[in-house]
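In the design runs reported in the main text, the only information available to the sequence generator was the tokenized backbone. The following block is the verbatim input for one such run; it is reproduced so that readers can re-run the procedure and compare outputs position by position.
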């Protein structure tokens, strides 16, 4: 990769449109910064690496295991890692069957579990790969509340990210907590994200993206213009949602430990 700084710039632009970055980044930092030197961090289903690859340059004293079943994700991480000093190992494995050569102090599973056909097997496998005092940081969609009828209409008309990736489920809160318990975890902390304003900003963003991808040339141009025009309002909605404390929401961030 000739210009990793460009990738970091792309990662940075995510903060302007993706509210989950605001919620997740400080939580992950809080967990990593207390780890001892040489600690083991595993990112299960790391995808484009916006968390583990980004943190590997900030906290290079940890050893990172990046697990994914998609070879293109591994190729990207390998190219990125050629330009940094962090200790990174790449595993081309499924989330339900991977085996680490050593137990992990911290395991991330961010926005992945809902796509796994056997999510209980994934949770059980992650539990078996954690140290007794290790932590699992899990982030999943819950409730599935929708606000904008126009967004529902667009999703029915055109394939969106979730349908392309074959999302298996949106959890009920009691369901995911029960699965964690059945897998041998005890929940130590949980936090709801994406309240009403967060849901609204996300549906607004995704509505524009669907039109930009699938619409006619005229619709693409119109959607791009309107997105730029209304983006400040979307950013304001994201900010207010982030500053609020939510008793419920469309996503749930959980920290769990082996029981």
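Verbatim output:
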């Amino acid at each position: 990769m000739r210009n990793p700084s460009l990738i970091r710039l792309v990662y940075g632009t995510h903060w302007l449109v993706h509210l989950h970055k605001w919620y997740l980044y400080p939580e992950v930092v809080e967990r990593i910064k207390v780890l001892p030197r040489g600690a083991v961090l595993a990112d299960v289903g790391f995808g484009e690496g916006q968390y583990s690859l980004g943190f590997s340059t900030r906290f290079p004293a940890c050893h990172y295991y990046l697990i994914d079943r998609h070879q293109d994700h591994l190729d990207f991480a390998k190219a990125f890692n050629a330009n940094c000093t962090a200790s990174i190992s790449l595993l081309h494995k499924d989330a339900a069957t991977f085996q680490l050569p050593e137990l992990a102090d911290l395991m991330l599973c961010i926005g992945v579990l809902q796509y796994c056909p056997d999510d209980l097997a994934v949770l059980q496998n992650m539990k078996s790969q954690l140290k007794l005092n290790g932590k699992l940081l899990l982030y999943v969609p819950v409730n599935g509340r929708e606000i904008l009828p126009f967004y529902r209409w667009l999703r029915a008309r055109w394939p969106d990210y979730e349908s392309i990736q074959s999302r298996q489920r949106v959890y009920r809160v009691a369901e995911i907590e029960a699965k964690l318990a059945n897998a041998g975890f005890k929940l130590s902390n949980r936090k709801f994200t994406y309240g009403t304003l967060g849901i609204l900003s996300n549906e607004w963003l995704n509505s524009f993206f669907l039109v930009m991808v699938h619409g006619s040339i005229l619709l693409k141009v119109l959607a791009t213009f309107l997105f730029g025009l209304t983006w400040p309002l979307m950013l304001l909605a994201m900010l207010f949602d982030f500053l609020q404390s939510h008793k419920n929401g469309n996503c749930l961030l959980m920290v769990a430990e082996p029981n």
